[in-house]
Amino acid sequence: MTGPIAQALAAFRSNKQTASWLTLPFFQDGSADRVAAKVDAVTASGGHVLPPPEAVFTSITLTPLDKVKVVILGQDPYPTPGDSHGLAFSYRGTRRLPASLRTILAEMAADLDVPMPKSGDLTKWAKQGVLLINTALTVEAGQSGAHMKFGWSDLVDQAMAAISAQQPAVVFLLWGGPARKRAALIDRTKHLVIEAGHPSPLNRLQDFKGTRPFSRANAWLAEKGLEPIDWRLDT
Prior knowledge:
- By secondary structure, the protein is an alpha/beta fold.
- The protein is 35% helix and 10% strand.
- It has helices spanning 4-14, 25-28, 31-44, 58-62, 99-112, 123-127, 152-166, 177-180, 213-223; strands at residues 49-50, 70-74, 130-134, 139-140, 171-175, 192-196.
- The strands form two sheets. It has a four-stranded parallel sheet.
- Helix 1 (4-14) packs antiparallel against helix 3.
- The longest helix has 15 residues, at 152-166.
- The radius of gyration is 17 Å and the shape is globular.
- The protein starts with a helix and ends in a 12-residue tail after the last helix.
- The model has no long low-confidence stretch (mean pLDDT 96).
């Protein structure tokens, strides 16, 4: 009997919409199966894995490789049940928006001169070609970072390299140290890289606010003849 993440992986592989991602070595050489087995072992031993199995691959399901226009990297899912649904920074909980997401959306509102959105659900971005991917696709409830060394990072590195190689013009928004380290995977002669500090309020340098990544991304996409992203969430 296979576990819930292995089953979610099988469903991902059978989805025609995800075919462009399945060429990555991660899905070809057994890496995906090994990571799924590690996560399922946690569940089998009584651990509470987040997000729900059907949401683990949401980022690369909603945004196929050949549709990517913007990449935003997160670290790992929110460790509170009900908050994460498989997209980096995106939030569907019922409480106040998480601090980092609130900072991101406040910057978006100020940058584009639009109202601060009430929703924290970033699905609308993903459907327009914004890949919102965490460096670990799973976490354990109450244990932030618990699955960071499970092997998910291989998927992210391969995805970044493939996007850089295969897509003609993509904006990479690299926020915080771990994301910025992946800049080496990007061909800057083809793509735009916008680096900034992490939007977390714990960032002592406070070097995220005022960087205007949303308008800069849209201006560059327009220069390349691509449709800009509608970053507004409440419309």
